[in-house]
Amino acid sequence: MNPRLPLTLAVCLGILLGAGAATFRYAEGFSYFSNDPQACANCHVMREYLDSWQKSSHHTRAVCNDCHVPHELVPKLVTKAENGWNHSRKFTLQNYPEALRITPHNADRLQHGCLSCHEDLTSDIRDAARPGGSVHATDITCARCHADAGHGPRR
Amino acid sequence: MSQRAKYLLAIAATAVATFAVVMLLLNIAQRKVEAKQTHFELVKLTEDTVDPKLWGENFPSQYDGYRRTVDTERTRYGGSEAFSRLDADPRLKRIFAGYAFALEYTEDRGHAYSLRDQDSTARVRERPQPGSCLQCHASVIPAYRKAGGGDVMRGFEIVSAMPWVDARKLVEHPVACIDCHDPATMALRVTRPGFLNAYRGYMTTKGVADYDPNTMATRQEMRSFVCGQCHVEYYFRKPDQVVVYPWSRGLRIDDEEAHYDSLRFSDWVHAETGAGVLKAQHPEFEMWNQGVHARSGVACADCHMPYMRQGAIKISDHHVRSPLLNVDRACLVCHSFPAEEMKARAQTIQDRNAALLSRAEDALVGLFDAVKAAKTAGADSVALAAAGRLQRRAQFRAAYVNAENSMGFHAPQEAARILGEAIDYARQGEIEALRVARTRRP
After folding, report:
1. Which residue in chain B has the smallest CA separation from A91?
2. ipTM of this predicted complex?
3. How far apart are CA B200 and CA B16, in angstroms?
């Protein structure tokens, strides 16, 4: 065996790591670990959502992550990784519908986001909406009616 | 596997991974550049650049969409395929008896055909028409400016008064970029003199003097006004043939009818009944103005030219077409329902409107039969004057909803109100004609 092969391989790996690191930095990869709403609009598609959030009642009190991402460390990283993978895959391959819709899983996370601040205030409403409660509607989330709370008036 | 082969395989795998990373890097870089610079000016566009192809050099995505208006795709009631409406609904031959629309009445095609289809229609080939038609069928403003010695408004009057065959030689392109965009800034603008005159007049009724949409309208209003330049009811003023939109009293059908009545204007004399009647053209702008979308601030362009993303940028889809062919982008951006649900809602409105329109046309034909019978019984035009006035009302209303290119969708309740009145006036006219006939019988 040529004794130089391990060295060659090490150089190759180094190039890969370097290119990967450069790409990560150029794509502002570290911003995704932050809480900064600008990071969500890095890939341009979210520009409208960032704009409409700035026009919403919540923009002084809550950023994207407060509502859309769990607050505990591990679920937070899982959510960011899962959505990060889905978003970058779809944006890179340009394969997504024009009218964006929240996925059921993310809607669930959003509902928890609402409750993380408004849980006590809304307990009566939520009790009434449970099966057997006075209003039988298990799929009613806060955002179903308060659609403008986080993202300004819809156009 | 030898150790050497393992190493070579590892190198190959690293190479593939590095290749993928670099490709991703290039993709990200491309998106970043797209977001920074949205267009490149390759051609200097001026007020005389009529050819949309040259605009397409600077705006290839928008031009690509514009070119797609050559599509021919039918929807349930319309679309962009040139089918004969006279064959689809033979009652129209009697309704338009004595008028050029009884010769040929074809479903309109996309913007790309606006001039070509005017060249070929029997209404222009077999009946002499004035140059007025070109106001909306051609990219005509530079020709107006030339004819008017620099004054577009004067050129508009001169060209409108010319015979169509002569005026046609002054223009080359169908509706194009320059008709809605300022070549220097790309800002939306209204260029058609007919709209500028009529809307200024309409705004005086609202207490606003000297209204000019190009300086006083919001951007969202402009996203409807540019369409409303042409998608309106109009007539050629006599004797100078200038295109006028009948908005002196307002934008509703009742206001337009009052405008015509005050001038004793008729489009033609009905060949079966002898009544002076009106045909509405394509009052999309007026009908939309009566609907809930207009009331909610939704512009024509929001549904007919919805935004589409291309890489990192967002453009208006210049493939102007029925939103029914593009429900996803046209409706779902505002409505949180599946596309099938939104399409079903729109088509339910259209089905109901079509059924009501059909009844209105049946009522009109019933009126024609009754008037003809009264004539056979010896009634003259004086005795049938009242029936004729009712026919005029019924006929304008039925034609209004028929010619309006949304099958009622732009303002469902208004369309139903108009058709309800059309049916009532037609049956009243029929009763009147039957009464006249009875008095003539021995």
Report:
1. B311
2. 0.73
3. 66
